[in-house]
Amino acid sequence: MSIEVRIPTILRPYTSGEKLVSAQGATLEEVMNDLEGNYPGIGERLIDESGLRRFINIYVNDEDVRFLDGLQSVIGENDSITILPAVAGG
Amino acid sequence: MLIGMLEIQRSLVDAIVAHARADHPDEACGVIAGPIGSDRPERLIPMVNAVRCPTLYEFDSMDLLRLYREMDDRDEVPVVIYHSHPATQAYPSITDITQASEPDAHYVVVSIRETGPAEGPFDFRSFRIVDGEVTEEAVHILE
């Protein structure tokens, strides 16, 4: 099962510039682990010891995973994942 | 001597300053999208500051998704990301620097500390923020 993942500009150095990559997994956590396996270093930009990083947004289709089950969100065959860093500052 | 440069229409500068004044005392924020590869800010998209705060801004996460989908559909990128500093100088704060996430964008900071919501002088400056490093650039306003 292959899931489409959209990579934001700031993380494309990890994916050789690719904007769209595929990954495997039945939960968001598995998808993240698979991404890290293929693009080493990308994982820690997304996740820290407490879970999804505060200023990273991940969406499954049109849903922010914070309103689903976070890293335990179930990913289906035709789902697509979008990663967007927060636009924020002070 | 500033190396980089932001070229921007006067009407867009005026619209950003007006947005800053309208949202005073909170920070105002938004994007100017432009065609991929053009470095030309064209389409102003004022965003809601989801944290409604005089010292912080953040786009709402669902607004952010809609914004990026729309830009993708139109072959646009965020050429400018702007926000206001209602009471401090027009220079990126530590928070601005640590949270900057668009290495190709011009980060515009507009300070209205002299006048608040009233008409009058403002400070409009532009920066690149890449890997925690801030580089100010010249602003060339197109009349």
Tell me what you see in this structure.
The complex is a heterodimer of chains A (90) and B (143). Helix content of chain A is 18%, strand content 30%. Chain A is of the alpha+beta class. In chain A, a hairpin with a 2-residue loop joins strand 3 (47-48) and strand 4 (51-52). The termini of chain A are far apart. With 143 residues, chain B is of the alpha/beta class. Helix content of chain B is 23%, strand content 37%. Chain B has three helices and eight strands. Chain B has helices at residues 10-23, 61-73, 94-99, and strands spanning 5-9, 29-35, 43-47, 57-58, 76-85, 106-111, 123-130, 133-142. The longest helix of chain B is centred in the N-terminal third of the chain and has 14 residues, at 10-23. The two termini of chain B are 23 Å apart. The chains are: A alpha+beta (90), B alpha/beta (143). The interface between A and B is medium-sized, with 17 and 29 residues. Strand 8 (88-89) of chain A pairs antiparallel with strand 4 of chain B, so a sheet runs across the interface.
Brief synopsis:
Chain A is of the alpha+beta class and 90 residues long. In chain A, 18% of the residues lie in helices and 30% in strands. Chain A is globular and about 40 Å long.
Mean pLDDT of chain B comes to 97
DSSP helix fraction of chain B: 10-25%
End-to-end separation of chain A in angstroms reads 41 Å
Shape by Cα distribution of chain B? globular
How many extended strands of chain B? 8
Into which percentage range does the β-strand content of chain A fall?
25-35%
Q: What's the Cα radius of gyration of chain A? A: 12 Å
Shape, per Cα inertia axes of chain A: globular
Helices and strands of chain B: which structural class? alpha/beta
Radius of gyration of chain B: 14 Å
Order of secondary-structure elements of chain B = EHEEEHEHEEE
Number of helices of chain B: 3
Quaternary status of these chains?
heterodimer
Distance between the termini of chain B: 23 Å
Helix tally of chain A equals 2
Q: Name the helicity range of chain A.
A: 10-25%
User: Strands across the major sheet of chain A, in which order?
Assistant: 2-1-7-5-6
Largest sheet of chain A: 5 strands, mixed
